[in-house]
Amino acid sequence: MLVTGNDSNNMNDDKLHEECGVFGVLYKDPAHNAVPTTYFGLLSLQHRGQESAGIALTTSDNNGTRIECRKGMGLVGEVFAHGHFLEDLKGSAAIGHVRYSTAGASIIENAQPFVSRFKLGSIAVAHNGTLTNADVVRSLMEDSGIAFASSSDSEVIINLIARNYKKGLEKALGDTIKFIKGSYALLVLTEDALVGARDPSGIRPLCLGRIPGKTKDDTDAYLLTSESCAIDAVGGEFIRDIEPGEMIIIREGEVLSFTFSEKTPRAVCAFEYVYFARPDSHIDGQDVYEARLKAGEILGKEAGVAADLVIGVPDSGVPAAIGYGRATGTPFGLGIVKSKYVGRTFIAPEQASRERAVSVKHNVIRSEVQGKRVVVIDDSIVRGTTSRRLVSILRAAGAKEVHFRVSSPPVRFPCYFGIDTPHRKDLISNLNSENELCKSLGADSLAFISVGGLLQSMGSQVNEPGPGCGHCLGCFTGEYPIPVHGEE
Ligand code: SF4
């Protein structure tokens, strides 16, 4: 069955989208301001969410210590434009959040961090992921008289912590975490501590870093963040990844580690390596750039074709194209240019303007592809709209043959763990065989990397999906590391 996949009116809807990025810092010296560090950390996580941004910090004055928060809709640079919001903020600990909405609408009420003020103090929470039991927990809490200000499932977390806070921080966090299910990389800021927790399967990444002091062994501050690139951005040193099911409490210059769940197989999201994470990050010991390069090499070995040129769809298709070129001996070139300044909120109401919008985003370097047999490599095919357009503009620029190769397996199933996926009916690989899809794209040939090949590229010791492979592959295989209601 052929589908057009054209019912989206968002020109960037042909990709899966990461939901959020989190960044936290706690300085030992109470005079040190954590806000600029958080701002720069968030800037380097901007690729993980572009709809809203926020910073919460602990601040002290004659009235005591409390948590303040500033957040708004838009990019980090827009929300905190020209120091707006930042100038009046000073405090030695802060957490920040960038958001792309999946659970909950794109409105200011859902922007994070969330702050709760109650009799015993105040806390702030920043969450990346999705709770699979948020609706159940929310309605239980509503039945007991708790009101919610947003539709975000992350607000469930802060309300649970606040409710349990009289038992002490550690117990309140432990009890909350036992109650929630799903994926989370969680930061909690209290008036005297910074806390990080990663869900028992480790689906979303979280890592620990530090900012060195005057001597090599001194530490000025500890950092917790979604990706290691944010640690580099603030001049920090990577210490280690947070383990699945681990909670870290940083207080008075000490880092304490707790294991809060039974040992569960690690299942880090494979799409972090395919597309979401920045190529200069590493997650759970695996360099993201290396994984993309390797995926291209494996794709070349699995589905190489005689050609004069291999090109990658920017950005994450490019390392895979380099790897493919190395494996097959095909010369690599830059055949496609992407405009980085096309916003993701662009809405094109008419079909004609929609197609124009795609042309604005990608263009072909005619002199590079003219008269050549071209292999084009993208990181994924979701709806197929961009791929179809790319084949068409490559042919219009004079490419003799266009062979499409994809460095992830076909996306056939939705994600329930914090990634925005279109409806199943709009996932073009769910409804079409590879041959039908190739015809629909207008390509001379089409091939995807195998699931085993993808696992190998991410350094997995096992080539079969399942509990031992170390990764969630749910959107490729339909098998999820956490039971999902309706998908069992
Ligand atoms: S289903 Fe799993 S692999 Fe796919 S995007 Fe979601 S977390 Fe990642």
Layout of helices and strands:
Blueprint (H helix, E strand, L loop, with lengths): L16 E2 L1 E8 L7 H9 L8 E10 L2 E10 L2 H4 L13 E7 L14 E5 L2 E8 L5 H10 L10 H11 L4 H11 L5 E5 L4 E5 L8 E6 L6 E7 L2 H6 L3 E5 L4 E6 L2 E6 L8 E2 H7 L5 E2 L2 E2 H16 L5 E4 L4 H12 L7 E3 L12 H11 E3 L1 H4 L3 E6 L6 H12 L4 E6 L12 E2 L7 H4 L2 H8 L3 E4 L2 H7 L13 E2 L1 H4 L11
Helix pairs in contact: 4-5, 8-9, 8-15
The structure holds iron/sulfur cluster.
Can you characterise this structure?
The protein has 488 residues and is of the alpha+beta class. The chain folds into two domains: 17-264, Glutamine Phosphoribosylpyrophosphate, subunit 1, domain 1 (4-Layer Sandwich), CATH 3.60.20.10; 291-460, Rossmann fold (3-Layer(aba) Sandwich). Helices cover 28% and strands 26% of the residues. It is built from 16 helices and 25 strands. The strands form seven sheets. It has a seven-stranded antiparallel sheet. A six-stranded antiparallel sheet has the order 6-7-8-9-13-14, covered by helices on one side. Strand 3 and strand 4 form a beta hairpin. Helix 8 (288-303) crosses helix 9 and helix 8 runs antiparallel to helix 15 (451-457).
